[in-house]
From TrEMBL:
CC annotations in GO: cytoplasm; ribosome
Domain of life: Bacteria
Stretch forming the signal peptide: none
Alphabetical list of Pfam families matching this protein: PrmA
Keyword Cytoplasm: yes
Gene Ontology molecular function: any one: protein-lysine N-methyltransferase activity
SUPFAM superfamilies: S-adenosyl-L-methionine-dependent methyltransferases
UniProt cross-references to HAMAP family, sorted A to Z: Methyltr_PrmA
Protein name (record): Ribosomal protein L11 methyltransferase
Annotated organism of origin: Lentilactobacillus farraginis DSM 18382 = JCM 14108
Gene3D superfamilies associated with the record: Vaccinia Virus protein VP39
Amino acid sequence: MQWTEVSVITSSEAVEAVSNILMDYGASGVSIEDAKDFQHLKPGKYGQYGEIIDPKDVPHLSKGAIVSAYYPDSRHIAQRTAEISAKVQKLADFGLQSAPAEVKLTPVADENWKTAWEKYYHPFSVTRYLTVVPSWDDYQPKSALEQIIRLDPGMAFGTGTHPTTQLSLQALEMVLRGGESLMDVGTGSGVLSIAAKLMGADDVFAYDVDDIAVASAKKNINLNPRAADIQISANNLLTGIHKQVDLVVANILAEIIVPLVPQAFANLKPGGHFLMSGIIKDKYALVTDALKAHGFKINQSLKMADWYAIIAKKPSEED
């Protein structure tokens, strides 16, 4: 399969907004090179083998940022480049200087996928106890409490570095106590399902409408032996699914969360929780209105940059 890398050369302040634009066109995640990340770094153990390196000696952008996403040719993304460019330039109307706002397309063959991602993807501490590690990295836990999720991004995203995934994992850590049943809707790389198993969830069911994501998630599950019994299959949200579980989690766009709300309510036990992320600031009210309209109680909202996650509860007789 042929893939296309879409890279937007922009400013540091526009990174989140540009990321959202690319995700609106079907990307499930982005990679970011940002000059700002190097501004305040001091010499430290940045080498491959833990050696001390001065950040100024590490190849990096001297100014601005590059936000990149990958799309299969089936998305015909090349035909929509002008639309993406126009939306990036229009960010100036909202007070975000996105210049130079250049959009570049680069073909990426299947066999070059891993190489394309290795330069961006490194071990990443998502929470106090969870670290996401690429499958090719020989990372070792720093303490007995550190849980390691090994992933190969493959053709699906959700590696733990994007704010939406971080918020999802933090929400899971807040709610899970052990022994729960869980549905992961739009599983992508499978990272949330795997994390749930590491946190003590019992029965985990993962769904994604994309066969590529299902295959990627299965591969990642096999990299994490403790997650071996996750049940994963292709499905359009929770259409046709009738199970009573303790938690439903979804890290997807707000417009897709809205039709999922009544399905989640129907599949949750009384007192069960619905954890959702992928909600940009402008869509927050859209989601909360849908939750309230279908009987959910909103327990908590989490925020990172311009992204939100919401923890909602299906009322029980005691509520």
